Amino acid sequence: MKCKRLNEVIELLQPEWQKEPDLNLLQFLQKLADEAGFKGPLVDLSDDILIYHLKMRSSAKDAAIPGLQKDYEEDFKTALLKARGVIKE
């Protein structure tokens, strides 16, 4: 499992870091943490924060978070009926 997450971080990190070649890795990670709103020490930055921020970094501000779009319902009534099992998918 850790190997898959490492590969995902590297795959997402490489193209973004290439856009800012003047920064070393720690400077770039700090920049990503700041952009994501992470205020703690860099050592506490989770891979989840890093992965989701890298996925969302170049997307529109109102874009859905990856993994949540599949559960998105525009109509609240429909969402509620699906959650209660009245409407089957």
From TrEMBL:
InterPro entries: DUF1040 (IPR009383), YihD_sf (IPR038134). Gene3D superfamilies: Protein of unknown function DUF1040. It comes from the Bacteria. This is Protein YihD.
